[in-house]
Structure formats: C-alpha cells, structure tokens
Amino acid sequence: MLSVDDVASFLRKPRSWVYGNWRQQRIPFKRVGNQLRCRPVDLETWLDSL
Asked: Is the pTM here over 0.70, yes or no?
C-alpha cells in the first residue's frame, strides 16, 4: 500500500496537492485507520483512465 508521500512522489506533485485534491481527482485512496493508503494497481488504473 502506498502512502500519500509515495503517491505524491510518483505523481511528481507536492504532498499538499495530493491531500487537497484526492477527493476531486478521485485518487483511489482507502482509509486505513486515520491514514490514506492506495494500492499501486489502483493508482495505475486511475492514471490510465485519465
């Protein structure tokens, strides 16, 4: 599972952009406790759909 920092690095966006836009951009995060996590395959699928 990728953290917000991992996703930001992968997308080459600031961490603040990821936090500010994950709902509007529909980045496929799941809540794990109080953290956002994303499966790599879900991130790849999301990118392919853009």
From this structure: yes
